[in-house]
Amino acid sequence: MVLLKKQFFTGLVLCSSLTLVGCSINIGGNSDDEKSSNNDQKSESTSKQSNNDTSNDQSSNNEDNNESGIKNESNITEQQSIAMAMLEPNLESKIVTGDELLSGKYTQTFGAGEKQEQDIDTLELSESPQLNKMKNKPEGMKFYGLNASKGSYATIVGVNKKEVVYIMTQSVINDYNDIKDSETTKILNISDLYSKYKDNRKVANVANKIEFGDSMPSNDDEDTSTLEDDTDSEQSYDSDSSSEEVTRDNVIDKVESYEGETLDTDTYTFKEPEKTDEGKWGFSFEDKDGNLAGSYVIDEDGEVTEYDEDGEEVGSGY
């Protein structure tokens, strides 16, 4: 009987021990799972933070990666406005283009059709006090003379916050209204240019090659003696010009000097100059349909007389 009780007691102790061991194992297992779960959460959190940091870095890089160099439309500089205008393809026959400025060379065409390659390192803007006194000019617009021109004319550029204006001229301009609708004046809207070229890297490259030079002389700054000297010089030049022998090579120059602009070869076809029995030079021109549109006769002293299609005199001068 005593032996039976001992066996029962021993079995009870073993069962209790196994139960406690089992509980201990279960408790230990739950603790490891929680640690693993916490580690997974920390790893996921770290990964998300890393992704967020990467995304922020990429966003920052995208903001800084502005190809044109223009921060926004309200902060466009004069050089950037002019640079965008120089990329316009419809101006390439009139002005030195952005691509030509970057290449360092452009072609200039003279009155008689002669072409000559010119070198250019920078486009220099010289503010013109005289032009900035122009009547009826757009508000806030500054006018600059350029150091490079595509033809036998002066190229002027005006710029304000809204527009870039190119003027190709051979004469003095006193009133903006006289030239704003002329074929030799090109007006470009800066907002349109910005929409078109805001992501174009060439804008920054071209703008970096546009510099401000010394202001052009103003007539108000000249003293009387200087004006007299200029007048004498101009009269002497006119005398020399009128006495210059008229030849086939300079006939076109004489006519363009009289017209104040280059001949409109897009609208008319000009015949080759011929010398008459009286020693005068002349040539006619036709529209694109082949109809006679007019003619010019140049005297021996260089005076040009213009006639319409019916042979009626239109005007004359040098």
Automatic annotation (TrEMBL):
Residues 46-63 have a biased composition (Low complexity). Residues 32-45, 245-257, 269-284 have a biased composition (Basic and acidic residues). Residues 28-72, 212-284, 296-318 are annotated as: Disordered. Residues 219-243, 298-318 have a biased composition (Acidic residues). PROSITE patterns: PROKAR_LIPOPROTEIN. This is Lipoprotein. The lineage of its organism: Bacteria, Bacillati, Bacillota, Bacilli, Bacillales.
